[in-house]
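Sanity check

After download, print the first record. It should look like this:
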Amino acid sequence: MKLKELEQKLIEINVPDYVYSILKGGLPNEQYCLAKDGANWEVYYSERGNKTGLKIFEDEETACEYFYKKVAKYAK
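Expected structure tokens:
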């Protein structure tokens, strides 16, 4: 899936927007993040200014699928 589809799916399953950050950059406190770093995509949990559980992907689709699996459990 691509970014637009990811964002739509998260809205459809009612994942609160305070749980995640998509392409906003920085290190928001206690959020799952999907970021682009050069040619790579990063998925991590941002906590106290640190990237915890950092995973690096070479393509958008794989990063989005992984990110979705991480945050879907917070659906209401």
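If your output differs, re-run the checksum step. Summary of this record's structure: The beta strands are 20-22, 31-37, 40-47, 50-57.
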